[in-house]
């Protein structure tokens, strides 16, 4: 037993190393992506629809795994009804009619899949492409910061006027249901006004709503939009979105934890494509400044632009910033990884660079890797003040130029990639 102290020291050292790799970026002793996600949905055959969903669902309804459902046109759950979806159920959005599903204010969706049996929303085309169908829209009655409430009017729904598609209210604890172990594929159909559906729109969603383990892949519009409300998101995945991965506005109060955004330079739209977009509202004249501004807390995120030749793609102008922060908002981001962007963060030019403003935009214990610049103000190439502020050792931010293969465990596995940081393979410093 004389070697017991040495054995114990070795054990605790190994234990410390195991947890050290989990300090930044997505965390987990195992790869939590390995069971319920799908990174090659184009190779999956879901079969033909056996049941049709259309018009309004005004009574409690249950969708069963044994059927495959088609969303024909704009489908609305109304009248405080509960739509329950069994684990393993497949719901197909119709291409020709721009199929979509809206859970109206007061109604509830219970899409509680299993790690081994996720619920899938996907396209009905034989050759699937981004924007094949509309998306999933959930409207609640939690607060938003715009005058007179909100409405997704840009969708131009062909709907009976009796269907209320407004969102927002005074109920912070609003409960719109559960989204757990859910995949949303090939959504973001182009709208009549020239924009796109959002693959997943959470508007006025309250704290009692459960949203975790949701993967959005190949969306032609934004992957996840949070308009107002107060919501907690965990283990979210946005994969190769054409536009924004996570968009926060209208006074959203959102905590997002242990989540992932994977971008590709050749898929991203040339305008407004980034991992996180944080704004108070799209139109300043609509903001009620007596209400809360948009506020996001982001912990253990991994935001990565996967590239075989990053320098070349930057020269072509294909690579943009990972995060955009607008004025009258706040962001508290820590223990996260931003890798392969140009630059990592862009602040709106209307934000004054002073202690008051920067105290609302926090980056702590971050890992900035292989970025063409770190934090800049829009239209200003001189970021000396920002570098001095965020480069202060008290923030414990780290800067590196490591290759993806040296930085992440295995991002090239098409079937089961692992985007966790690779322990003891990172050469990093506190200098850019």
UniProtKB/TrEMBL annotation:
This is T9SS C-terminal target domain-containing protein. It comes from Lacinutrix iliipiscaria. PANTHER family: LIPL48, SECRETED PROTEIN. It comes from the Bacteria. The lineage of its organism: Bacteria, Pseudomonadati, Bacteroidota, Flavobacteriia, Flavobacteriales. Keywords: Signal. Residues 1-20 form the signal peptide.
């Amino acid at each position: 037993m004389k070697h017991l102290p040495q054995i114990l020291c070795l054990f605790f050292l190994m234990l410390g190393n195991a947890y050290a790799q989990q300090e930044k970026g997505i965390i987990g002793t195992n790869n939590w992506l390995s069971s319920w996600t799908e990174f090659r949905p184009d190779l999956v055959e879901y079969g033909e629809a056996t049941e049709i969903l259309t018009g309004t669902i005004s009574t409690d309804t249950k969708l069963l795994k044994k059927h495959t459902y088609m969303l024909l046109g704009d489908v609305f759950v109304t009248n405080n009804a509960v739509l329950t979806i069994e684990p393993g159920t497949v719901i197909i959005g119709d291409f020709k009619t721009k199929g979509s599903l809206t859970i109206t204010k007061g109604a509830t969706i219970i899409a509680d899949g299993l790690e081994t049996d996720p619920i899938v929303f996907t396209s009905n085309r034989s050759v699937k492409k981004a924007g094949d169908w509309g998306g999933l829209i959930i409207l609640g009655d939690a607060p938003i910061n715009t005058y007179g409430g909100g409405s997704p009017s840009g969708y131009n729904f062909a709907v009976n006027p009796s269907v209320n598609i407004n969102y927002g209210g005074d109920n912070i604890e609003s409960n719109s249901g559960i989204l757990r172990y859910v995949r949303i594929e090939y959504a973001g159909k182009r709208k009549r006004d020239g924009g796109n559906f959002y693959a997943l729109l959470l508007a006025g969603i309250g704290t009692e709503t459960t949203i975790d383990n949701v993967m959005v892949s190949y969306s032609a519009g934004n992957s996840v939009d949070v308009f107002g409300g107060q919501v907690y998101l965990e283990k979210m995945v946005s994969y190769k979105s054409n536009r924004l991965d996570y968009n926060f506005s209208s006074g959203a109060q959102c905590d997002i934890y242990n989540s992932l955004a994977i971008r590709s330079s050749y898929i991203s739209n040339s305008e407004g494509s980034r991992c996180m977009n944080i704004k108070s509202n799209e139109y300043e004249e609509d903001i009620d400044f007596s209400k809360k501004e948009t506020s996001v807390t982001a912990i253990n995120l991994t935001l990565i632009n996967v590239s075989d030749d990053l320098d070349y793609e930057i020269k072509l102008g294909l690579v943009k910033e990972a995060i955009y922060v607008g004025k009258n908002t706040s962001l508290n981001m820590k223990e996260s990884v931003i890798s392969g962007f140009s630059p990592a963060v862009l602040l709106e030019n209307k934000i004054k660079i002073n202690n008051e403003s920067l105290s609302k935009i926090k980056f702590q214990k971050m890992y900035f890797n292989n970025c063409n610049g770190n934090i800049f103000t829009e239209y200003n190439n001189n970021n000396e003040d920002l570098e001095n502020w965020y480069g202060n050792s008290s923030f414990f931010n780290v800067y590196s130029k490591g290759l993806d293969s040296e930085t992440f465990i295995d991002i090239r596995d098409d079937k089961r990639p692992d985007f966790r940081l690779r322990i003891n393979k990172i050469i990093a410093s506190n200098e850019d």
